[in-house]
């Protein structure tokens, strides 16, 4: 179950890396206003996918991060946590609505974005 839960966030990160590579192609190799807007479009695709991956890895039910807990916690504790899944989900939605999670998720998303952008732009910076 943990490997299946990882499929979503990993696919989001792969799409983000591909979008950043395309963004860097348009940014470094092609010049012009139209190409700049295309690069910005792919940057936003990467940003959204990274935010989705980071959010989905929060270890709170019903998100995929809680499914990863099944590999770490004993079954008895995991199922005790899952009994309260609907109440935890309501609390999570309240925290999102109140903006409590904005800064922590923003810091994590920015860190992942920086790392993936560094990887995606490495070949272009080496030749520029």
Number of helices: 6
Which secondary-structure class do the elements indicate? mainly alpha
What percentage of amino acids are in beta strands? under 5%
Alpha carbon gyration radius: 18 Å
Structure described in brief:
This protein has 128 residues and is an all-alpha fold. It contains 6 helices and no strands.
Which keywords apply here?
128 residues, mainly alpha, 85% helix, elongated
Give an account of the 3D structure.
With 128 residues, the protein is mostly helical. The chain has helices at 2-29, 33-56, 64-72, 75-82, 85-98, 102-127. α1 packs antiparallel against α2 (33-56), α1 crosses α6 (102-127) and α2 packs across α6. The mean pLDDT is 89.
Topology:
Elements: H1 2-29, H2 33-56, H3 64-72, H4 75-82, H5 85-98, H6 102-127
Helix pairs in contact: 1-2, 1-3, 1-6, 2-6
